[in-house]
Here is the input.
Amino acid sequence: MKISDLLQPSAVILAPKAQGKKQLLQELAARASQVTRLSERKIFETLMERERLGTTGVGQGIAIPHGRVADLKEIVGVFARLDTPLDYDAVDNQPVDLVFMLLAPEGAGADHLKALARVSRLLRNQQVTEKLRAAKSAEAIFAILTDTTSTSGAQAA
Here is the structure.
């Protein structure tokens, strides 16, 4: 599974205006709604429901909010890079500035887990996260996320 299978250029948000975790999830849900044509409210509720089970802030400034949404046809990602890290209740108590949200169809099963693992491996690659943090545009971020040469080590892991 490649990141380009999960993410479209229009699903990259550079410098969202969010001042907190809930606002950030609302912005991600709004963009996901544009990409999927599904209810922004339903997406947001799905993300909040998942956060109540435990934080999706995985550490090192990274969060991977995710959930399963009825009526979704394929796994969809939305990526945001914040200019100012915000408190996300991450496992390491560090603020978050890189967020890759994943939404999967209710029946996605193992594919949902594979997508989560793929995104997690990619964002554990320090070279990739440094490039993402230094990128000047949403287009550059999309190119970094979908560049199989810079992430081939992450794919093999």
Summary: The chain has one domain: 3-149.
